[in-house]
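User: For a benchmark we're assembling, each entry needs the component sequences followed by a predicted structure for the full assembly. Here are entry 17's components. Please fill in the structure.
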Amino acid sequence: MFKVNENYLKLPGSYLFSTIAKKVNAFTEAHPDRTIVRLGIGDVTQPLGEPVIRALHDAVAEMAYAETFHGYSPDLGYSFLREAIASGDYKARGCEIEPDEIFVSDGAKSDSGNIQELFSEDSRIAVCDPVYPVYVDSNVMAGRTGTYDPKTGYWSNVIYMPCTAANGFIADLPKEVPDVIYLCFPNNPTGAAITKDRLQDWVDYANKNGSVIIYDAAYEAYISEKDMPHSIYECEGARTCAIEIRSFSKNAGFTGLRLGYTVVPKDLKCGDASLHDMWARRHGTKFNGAPYIVQRAGAACYTDEGRAMIKSLVGYYMENARTIRDGLEKLGYTCYGGVNSPYVWMKTPDGMTSWDFFDYLLENAGVVGTPGSGFGPNGEGYFRLTAFGSHENSKNALERFAKL
Amino acid sequence: MFKVNENYLKLPGSYLFSTIAKKVNAFTEAHPDRTIVRLGIGDVTQPLGEPVIRALHDAVAEMAYAETFHGYSPDLGYSFLREAIASGDYKARGCEIEPDEIFVSDGAKSDSGNIQELFSEDSRIAVCDPVYPVYVDSNVMAGRTGTYDPKTGYWSNVIYMPCTAANGFIADLPKEVPDVIYLCFPNNPTGAAITKDRLQDWVDYANKNGSVIIYDAAYEAYISEKDMPHSIYECEGARTCAIEIRSFSKNAGFTGLRLGYTVVPKDLKCGDASLHDMWARRHGTKFNGAPYIVQRAGAACYTDEGRAMIKSLVGYYMENARTIRDGLEKLGYTCYGGVNSPYVWMKTPDGMTSWDFFDYLLENAGVVGTPGSGFGPNGEGYFRLTAFGSHENSKNALERFAKL
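Assistant: Structure for entry 17:
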């Protein structure tokens, strides 16, 4: 009789956002007359910009004629896109990243879930607490995390790095050395950004201890303050210790188009084994390239018009972030994030648990957010609100909060 | 110091098609004046059909307005597509498959590479020999295959099922019982199709022995003869032992659009563990849905117009298959496949090895095919030619063969 991967069975409950979706569905079925304001999932709401739409139509038109039809993409991405990324996202910031160190994919979620495959089964991972669930869950599925303690919410073999108001939601360097360190800045869910000096400390730590940093920079476009690095490769020595994951979802609104990329520098090695070559092999074996039309849309983001479009989209959402954060603070709530990030991380009132506040807010205001505890034990007592709604929705949510 | 997944390092050489690409590039650089006829990779060459192009333009247009914009897709696929598939590909053939048993993905390659994750690390897999390399390589990466013997080309812990002219390229039921059996019909690379009776034997064998069949039906649209099942669920009892993988690449020409799906019936269980629920969890954790616009394009394939388009595309390629097969036979070559499949599996002449014939054909005719030995030891002495070129290319290839 065949046997299943029992690591899957260790996963508690279902994926956070599925649970939220089920709760919201149950609520709307029970209250068909009530309207819901969704500030839960980090999904964008504004349409694709004109340069992207035009690039998509043009690329679709190419697919209609044999002379300009495109079949299988190169596994690692079209050169036109890899070159635009290397130049626009890296060389422009003084980072030495070559086009062939960039691996185009169908999104940052796939990459952040799959990247753990490159490491040995007994690797110790370190994650921030709270954390984007995919980093931990993908390692659970691979059998690296030990056993789950439902009382504490912790896995026995994961190094948790608390991110609290006390440390400004920037984890301290871990005492016990991890093999793989997941960092995400600007952070999901707390909205915290890291300065270049502090990130340099992490790079130095990783190089000194032989750790690899998986740096999730999906929200870099939201950085508004100086001294905050947009890429980990702005730090010296990052080429020998860091992998960076980027997304087109939050800057250009590609959540429904699916495009992202991962940078694996050629200098990142363990003995003779090159993580760059291993990731190339993974792409070649288990992935067949991102769609041509979507890669063309991605390339359109690097034109002058495309940059202006991103600036406008990010500006739109950041106005929401200000609306939400300023509004909540005026109502007496304690808030973090929302300055270099589309996420506002609010303290739940009256010592309510995150899920109690989720239910309370849904029932009494019809507003959906994300319970902080869904991101880890240190998220308990917090609640994540996203700025990805429309202006109207964000204002509407605040009006509903005001009536609580 | 971090450690890598050493299973990756066991993989010999690079992925078959990368090796071919490198050889062809070297040849074209050395002979810039020579033209190449490519019948190697199974990539389509004809443009997307009118119903698909229209669906893409329409969906792109929707993405330009907030009212009709689509962000994250449901992880498992949009209902409109899952319902079209359940009805068009299954209910229409008398198979009991429900929409929520269909998992929409970015293609059959990803699914066939990732599906092994559901099984325990000590699972024994069985593959046909020759075989599509992804099945084996993805299991190598997961550490299930033991050690590689470069002399024989076999992994110590894989059950190989020879497919030879003697058994009509349909493997015999294995004596040693595997946990997971990979089958692909119509077959890549041999082009062999299986009758319903023979496939029923496999389903009965799997149910009797507690094995799971991963059934790759990416080429089902090419079946031209009666009695050949288009889906494994045409066989009785397949719901308790089989997963089926399908693609839009070869029927509708989506190799550059990326769309496929996998069927995991709810009856497929190991004790309390449901492979359906596990695959849903994997999709929810490591995948973020196929692009909305591509799913709309997929749905367009199930309209009357879409069906006519597929019939026309498949007919176009099958004319090439006839050209190639009939032409080669007239020249005295021994050929298989090409009747229910876009692949012609020819015996190399004069006892040449597959790679020697590859080099000989490239040098002397400028024709690129795929060496049979790249698909496994029993592919040695064979050569795969695909019908996915244009009519002109296929005829041109035959003219070049005639001059050898």
